[in-house]
Specification:
The protein is α+β, with helices and mostly antiparallel strands. The chain contains 26 helices and seven strands. The strands form two sheets. It has a five-stranded mixed β-sheet with strand order 3-4-5-7-6, with helices on both faces.
Length: 674
């Protein structure tokens, strides 16, 4: 073994607290050798399982699989967060190189007939419920991967998986590139009327960082809607910003991804057919909590009709306010005007009360401490992967260590858009591992010495992503396969959405929402006004979300052999067919920047947010009916649901928590659809 390999920090478990990766020692040149060593290690471990001469047992087959691939897990957990949060050219080139190798390795494992046969031979008599479930889930994994295909079928499946992996990585890289290229450069500050002095300073700093000698740069967040559209009074500037947002990835040039999207949809349709499904949507939904594709459409159809009706009514009200027909770039601006005039809520004016440090430590952390008894201590002695990322140690009420939390909140050119949670280390009693999780956001970084003031949407995102973090941190399962957020995609958003309920909870709001200069609390009645105003704009919000959801399903209900020659025409046709083609309400994501479904694992799964929201809204109603922000409520939610990961059927876990199945009425009321 060369000196370079032997010194590789991924080859042994980290000795830092909770096995936090030793970022100070990790260099770019360590990743590829570690992946290669990880491939070799896991295949050797699998060979040992399949060459076992004795009868297959839970210990020598299933547990051996759970313990396998330690090096590969360590390096992959770090690398893929780095690729998303600090994707330098070197890292992105390596990600593209690794994509087909990882796909091939996964196929080598899951298409291993000898391994599958041993797994099928493992007796389950005498096993506890979690172990029995583990055996069943492994068997499903092999079947879903295509182990039952003949040699020709498996060969084609490997080709498809390799192509899709490479195309997905390419799509992600190009969307980041397109977003950077589409940022709107403005020379005259007068064209940015409505932005605060802090926002102008941030835009000026962004322009300098991007290499502009003068002017201001309006950078883009990943969804269609851009926060600045709420306050920019110059209609032409709003138009430029909106068109920059919706045209990302679909203009001429190297960052155009439309062809990639169409190719991926076609390949996914072929893969689904090979595996015995009518479409990729049907294949994708099969392992989720939703019982079928038909059930998803049955839920979405009436909600879509009601949402569009509400959005049309809102458009009429906005046109009356504006004195002219409403275009897509006008909606947010006049919607905020209605919110101010009719509900007394000016979201832009509230930003001085939403300073990042206060929102995080006196809001997000405070709510978790009151609800679950947690304590947070920032560990300045522990290095993260970037100077902007910070590390906290989290302790339980009895002083025992729960895990580590890494927060990386600022946008940068090397970070992909959006917000997300990842795990560097997943909890497991089998491996004696505590969770180490990270939240990534994309908040514009102000000039040095200036406060980071959040929009209300960014406050929501802070609480939302920490809900994912809690799901990972609270995991208390034996087996890594079931840890934390390793649950069906249409369940994973549920705990994060529940955590949003504490944003306006009086005790929490009073603790964090204080003016960053004066320390004054929010004006009396603000929370009540925000709550009263929450139904305003639900037509728009639900329609833009459903536009993206139905576009996702359309791409993945394609029949095999039905190529899409004109992706933009396909997109328009899909929205029209769904009755949701409102020009003033474009989908939350269009094809050219729909990272969730073409690069983020949500293919035919964007419906998950509203499917999860049924459980979320019902859970919020449960908390309110049972006393709200109390330790007893938090401990009950933690013990019955958040700690269970996938060791228990998710809907059974919900039933254990609520004492019944979910009710849709709270969701319909929240969305103004009753």
């Amino acid at each position: 073994m060369t000196e370079e390999i032997s010194a590789n920090p991924f080859l042994a478990a980290s000795t830092l607290p909770c096995q936090l990766p030793n970022f100070a020692a990790i260099k770019d040149e360590h990743y590829l050798p570690a992946f290669e060593a990880g491939f070799v290690q896991q295949l050797a471990e699998i060979a040992a399982i399949t060459s076992e001469t004795g009868a297959a047992t839970f210990e020598n087959t299933v547990l051996a699989m759970e313990r396998s691939g330690a090096v590969l897990t360590r390096v992959a957990n770090v690398f893929f967060n780095i690729a998303s949060s600090h994707g330098t050219p070197t890292i992105l080139a390596l990600e593209a190189q690794l994509a087909p190798l990882l796909s091939e390795h996964a196929d080598t494992v899951l298409l291993n007939t000898a391994l599958y046969e041993r797994m099928m031979a493992v007796p389950t008599q005498g096993l506890d419920a979690e172990a029995t479930r583990l055996v069943a889930e492994y068997r499903k994994s092999f079947t879903r991967a295509g182990v039952g295909l003949d040699a020709a079928g498996q060969a084609r499946l490997r080709e498809l998986n390799g192509q899709l992996s490479s195309l997905s990585t390419k799509f992600s890289h190009k969307v980041t590139q397109a977003g950077n290229e589409a940022a709107v450069h403005v020379l005259d500050a007068a064209e940015l009327d409505g932005l605060s002095a802090d926002d102008l300073a941030t835009a000026a700093a962004a322009a300098r960082t991007a290499g502009h000698a003068e002017g201001y740069l309006l950078t883009l967040i990943l969804p269609t809607a851009q926060p600045s559209l709420e306050v920019l009074s110059n209609r032409e500037t709003r138009r430029r910003l909106h068109l920059a947002s919706v045209s990302r990835g679909s203009t001429t040039g190297d960052s155009n991804v439309l062809g990639l999207a169409a190719t991926m949809a076609s390949l996914r349709a072929e893969k689904a057919s090979l595996l015995g499904f009518a479409s990729e949507a049907e294949r994708s939904i099969e392992p989720q909590t939703a019982p079928s594709l038909e059930a998803v459409h049955a839920m979405l159809s009436p909600i879509t009709a009601a949402a569009v009706r509400n959005a049309r009514a809102e458009a009429g009200k906005l046109a009356a306010t504006a004195g002219h027909a409403i275009e897509a770039w006008d909606w947010a601006y006049y919607s905020e005007q209605v919110r101010r005039d009719e509900y007394g809520v000016d979201l832009a004016a509230l930003r001085p009360w939403f300073e990042l440090g206060s929102v995080l430590e006196k809001g997000v952390f405070y709510a978790a401490s009151k609800l679950y008894g947690l304590a947070f201590a920032e560990r300045h002695d522990l290095a993260a992967y970037h100077e902007d990322a910070r590390v906290w140690e989290i302790s339980n009420a009895d002083g025992s260590t729960l895990g580590l939390f890494v927060g990386d909140f600022y946008t940068r050119e090397t970070k992909r858009g959006g917000a997300w949670m990842n795990s560097f280390v997943e909890q497991s009693h089998l491996l004696n591992a505590h969770a180490v999780v990270v939240n990534n956001l994309n908040i514009p970084k102000p000039p040095a010495g200036e406060p980071t003031l959040l929009t209300f949407d960014e406050v929501v995102t802070c609480f939302h992503e920490f809900g994912h973090a809690l799901h990972g941190l609270f995991s208390s399962v034996t087996y890594p396969k079931f840890s934390g957020t390793n649950v069906p995609r249409d369940f994973v958003e549920y705990p994060s959405q529940v955590n949003e309920m504490w944003i306006l909870w009086p005790e929490v709001l009073a603790n964090y929402a204080k003016h960053y200069r004066t320390g004054e609390p929010l004006p009396v009645g603000t929370a009540e006004k925000l709550t009263a105003a929450s139904l305003w704009g639900q037509g728009f919000a639900t329609t833009e979300y459903l536009g993206a959801t139905l576009l996702d399903l359309a791409w993945h209900e394609l029949a095999p052999g039905a190529p899409v020659e004109d992706p933009l025409a396909f997109e328009a046709g899909a929205l029209a067919a769904a009755g949701i083609d409102l020009p003033a309400v474009p989908p939350r994501y269009r094809t050219g920047y729909f990272n969730h479904i073409f690069a983020g694992g949500y293919a035919a799964g964007y419906y998950s947010y509203i499917w999860s929201e049924v459980l979320d809204a019902d859970t919020v109603a449960w908390f309110k009916a049972n006393g709200g922000l109390t330790r007893s409520n938090g401990d009950h939610f933690r013990e019955t649901l958040l700690s269970r990961g996938f060791a228990l059927d998710p809907l059974r876990a919900f039933h254990d928590f609520a004492g019944r199945d979910a009710d849709t009425a709270p969701l319909l009321a929240r969305r103004g659809l009753v």
